[in-house]
């Protein structure tokens, strides 16, 4: 059975686009305040958002947007695998942690910062929020590789590892950010193919 | 003691990123974990670091935190007794 892209979103340059249409913007804020404004607009009611690092906040918002769009916000477990990628890994948070341990005389690393010094922690934050006990993977590469992400996702679907996949790119480094996420389904109008994924990514 | 209790409330809100919670929302005897403020295990570690950094108190056994972090009032009493800063 063929798989389709049922919805997709872009978050970059202080704009939120859902299925190609701008649904929210807040141009004059720094990155973290922009995500806070987006959170307040989405109203997920998940206070742990404020304890996350920038990368996790960005991934959380993008996932929330798509699952809300598809009526999937519930307390029920969902069979959705997560396949994410980015360029900067968790570098922004890694730097913050490094700064806190540079001085041996003032050595007070923050546990809350340290727990975010892996990029796949953002998948954990999404999984906790949406009750996903599913397959997941996080790739780090120079740029968004549509073929690799869509092929990997398709393999999970074909192997029966999952019913749906939340996949894409979520990158955060020093106040620069970009997210492109999509959700697959077994029906829809957009075929889940590498070239189409690539085109959607570039239509930001 | 009242001054220290208020100081702790402010630090807890700031350092644990408790959005939408103010000092007035935390009663001196409110449980910090579980059904109270709903803090988690990472928050407990942050509080252990805060005790060390701000009050010179080193907890060698993280399990000690369970009693010490029961409420802000209990925390303040422990700090008053053991602080070196």
Q: Under CATH, the topology of chain B is which?
A: Non-ribosomal Peptide Synthetase Peptidyl Carrier Protein, Chain A
The CATH topology of chain A turns out to be: Peroxisomal Thiolase, Chain A, domain 1
The largest chain-to-chain contact, stated as pair and per-chain residue counts, equals: A-B, 10 and 13 residues
Write down the overall geometry of chain A. globular
CATH superfamily of chain B: ACP-like
Walk me through what this model shows:
The complex is a heterodimer of chains A (204) and B (85). Chain A is an alpha+beta fold and 204 residues long. Helices cover 37% and strands 25% of the residues of chain A. Chain A has helices at 31-42, 54-69, 91-101, 111-114, 121-130, 146-158, 194-202, and strands spanning 4-12, 15-18, 21-25, 80-86, 136-140, 164-173, 176-185, 190-191. In chain A, strands 1, 2, 3, 4, 5, 6, 7 and 8 form an eight-stranded mixed beta sheet that branches. In chain A, strand 1 (4-12) and strand 2 (15-18) form a beta hairpin. Chain A is globular. Chain A starts with a strand and ends with a helix. The mean pLDDT of chain A is 96. Chain B has a single domain, classed as ACP-like (Non-ribosomal Peptide Synthetase Peptidyl Carrier Protein, Chain A). Chain B is an all-alpha fold. Chain B is 52% helix and 0% strand. The two termini of chain B are 15 Å apart. In chain B, helix 1 (2-15) packs across helix 4.
């Amino acid at each position: 059975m063929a798989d389709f892209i049922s919805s997709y979103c872009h978050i970059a340059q202080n704009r939120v686009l859902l299925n190609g249409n701008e649904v929210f913007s807040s141009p004059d804020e720094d990155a973290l305040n922009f995500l806070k404004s987006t959170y307040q607009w989405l109203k997920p009611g998940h206070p742990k958002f404020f304890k996350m690092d920038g990368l996790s906040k960005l991934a959380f918002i993008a996932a929330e947007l798509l699952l809300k769009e598809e009526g999937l916000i519930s307390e029920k477990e969902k069979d959705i695998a997560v396949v994410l990628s980015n360029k900067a890994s968790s570098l922004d948070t890694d730097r913050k942690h490094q700064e806190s341990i540079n001085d041996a005389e003032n050595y007070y690393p923050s546990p809350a910062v340290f727990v975010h010094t892996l990029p796949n922690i953002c998948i954990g934050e999404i999984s906790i929020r949406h009750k996903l006990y599913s397959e997941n993977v996080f790739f780090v590469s120079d740029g968004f590789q549509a073929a690799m992400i869509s092929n990997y996702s398709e393999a999970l679907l074909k192997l029966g590892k999952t019913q749906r996949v939340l996949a894409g790119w979520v990158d955060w480094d020093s106040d620069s950010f970009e997210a492109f996420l999509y959700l697959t389904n077994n029906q829809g109008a957009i075929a889940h193919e590498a070239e189409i994924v690539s085109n959607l990514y570039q239509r930001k | 003691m009242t001054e220290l209790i208020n100081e702790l409330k402010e630090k807890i809100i700031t350092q644990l990123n408790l959005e939408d919670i103010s000092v007035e929302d935390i009663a001196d005897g409110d449980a910090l974990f579980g059904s109270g403020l709903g803090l988690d295990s990472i928050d407990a570690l942050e509080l252990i670091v805060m005790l060390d950094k701000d009050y010179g108190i080193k907890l060698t056994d993280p399990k000690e935190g369970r009693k010490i972090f029961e409420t802000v009032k209990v925390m303040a009493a422990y700090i008053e007794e053991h602080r070196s800063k």
